UniProtKB/TrEMBL annotation:
Annotated protein name in UniProt: LTD domain-containing protein
Segments for region (Disordered): 23-47
Lineage: superkingdom: Bacteria
SUPFAM superfamilies: Lamin A/C globular tail domain (SSF74853)
Pfam families named among the record's database cross-references: LTD (PF00932)
InterPro entries the UniProt entry points to: Lamin_tail_dom (IPR001322), Lamin_tail_dom_sf (IPR036415)
Leader sequence segment: none
LTD domain ranges (all copies): 37-128
Native organism: Streptomyces rimosus subsp. rimosus
Length: 131
């Protein structure tokens, strides 16, 4: 990561620059909660690199405040790229990674996704309240 800057975030962009949580999150999977892998995979949060340079996200975490579920990243996110973090099982690609859980990670109605870097510093948060 050139210059050691923080260039990742959750969408919509909540940080002045860098990695952020992106679109979403989609906390309530669409359709019936039928216990299939499709249902938890419909829960996701997008993490977006808003900077020009790649960011090594290895050691970074994405955590639910309500359920305390934590995903640990093992990837490098290219400049101006984003990755969707799905809850269910699947094969990781450059566009989507999977927590490999059989149960849900996000509270459907009220939760906060927190993105922390490898030094445990908060880089971005995304809160939703659909009550």
């Amino acid at each position: 990561m050139p210059g050691g800057g923080q260039h990742a975030a959750l969408d919509p962009c909540l940080c002045p620059a860098g990695v952020r949580t992106g679109r979403g999150p989609q906390a309530d999977s669409l359709g019936r909660d039928d216990g299939s892998n499709r249902s938890p995979n419909a829960e996701w949060v997008t993490v977006k690199n808003t900077g020009r340079h790649a960011v090594n996200l290895t050691g970074w975490t994405l955590t639910s405040q309500r359920t305390h579920v934590t995903y640990r990243f093992h990837l490098c996110l290219g400049g101006h790229r984003q990755v969707r973090v799905h809850v269910g099982r699947g094969l990781d690609t450059m566009r989507g990674v999977y927590q490999n859980r059989r149960t849900y990670a996000w509270d459907n109605h009220c939760d906060t996704a927190t993105l922390r870097n490898d030094h445990r510093l908060v880089v971005d948060t995304k809160h939703w309240n659909h009550r």
